[in-house]
Design a protein that fits this description.
With 219 residues, the protein is mainly beta. It has one helix at 202-218, and strands at 3-4, 16-18, 23-32, 38-46, 51-63, 94-95, 106-108, 135-137, 144-145, 148-149, 155-164, 172-182, 189-197. The chain has one domain (3-218). Strands 2, 5, 7, 8, 9, 12 and 13 form a seven-stranded antiparallel β-sheet that branches. Strands 1, 3, 4, 6, 10 and 11 form a six-stranded antiparallel β-sheet that branches. The radius of gyration is 18 Å and the shape is globular. The N and C termini lie far apart (37 Å).
């Protein structure tokens, strides 16, 4: 079952963004895959379908931990081509520049370092994107149009998939800046926002319920 976290505030899906003439914010869809792992698809949303994705950058973990899970022989890399087979696509964490995993031509910023000088994975990067990191379209000659309907009168492009083990599905908030342009133009536009993944612990939900009850009594 898939749940959109634009409306799922009870699932800690609050999405905060600074809207521009095109970008209207980040959103997250949550589902559980056949392996029992939790899958978050992260989308950039726009108010028209005449925009093209360029890059995201200045990632910052604002609260909690990403707790990303990787599967297959590509474990340890966020580049989708590193995933071993299509069978692992739905059970692996990756970033994208085209809105899909298959054929995604994405490149990581120099600040997004995954492996050391010996080719060994740097501890922790597989589970947590480094602060300051970003990624971009590695094929600028092919425009990555933002034209998928978001079901709310706007359009979106998927730029991340975060898979978590069910036991690691705690609340975490991330910040990202995004670069884009109007189709067939050369001027880059920039905006920013945050997105939240994870389900509050039962105790936290209970506290929210008590707070809401107290608020109703005061009124």
């Amino acid at each position: 079952m898939k749940k959109s976290l634009l409306a799922g505030a009870s699932l800690a899906a609050a999405v905060a963004s600074v809207a521009s003439a095109g970008f209207t914010g980040w959103s997250v869809d949550r589902s559980v895959n056949a392996s029992g792992n939790v899958v978050y698809k992260v989308y950039a949303n726009f108010n028209a379908n005449n925009f093209v994705f360029l890059n995201v950058f200045n990632f910052a973990q604002q609260s909690g931990n990403m707790n990303a899970f990787h599967s297959g022989t590509g474990a340890g890399t966020w580049v989708p081509q590193g995933t071993s087979s299509a069978a692992h696509v739905g059970n692996d964490s990756w970033v994208s520049s085209t809105g899909t995993h298959v054929g995604s031509q994405v490149a990581l910023d120099p600040s997004f370092v995954e492996f050391d000088s010996y080719g060994e994975p740097i501890a922790g990067v597989d589970a947590q994107i480094p602060n300051g990191a970003g990624w971009y379209d590695a094929t600028p000659g092919t425009q990555n149009a933002i034209n998928q309907s978001n079901g709310s009168g706007g359009f979106r492009i998927q730029l991340m998939q975060i898979v978590r083990l069910a036991a690691d599905d705690t609340v975490a908030t991330q910040y990202l800046k995004i670069g884009f342009k109007v189709t067939n133009t050369t001027t880059a536009l920039f905006d920013e926002g945050t997105f939240t993944i994870g389900v509050p612990a039962p105790g936290a939900l209970a506290l929210l319920g008590v707070a809401g009850l107290a608020g109703r009594r005061r009124r």
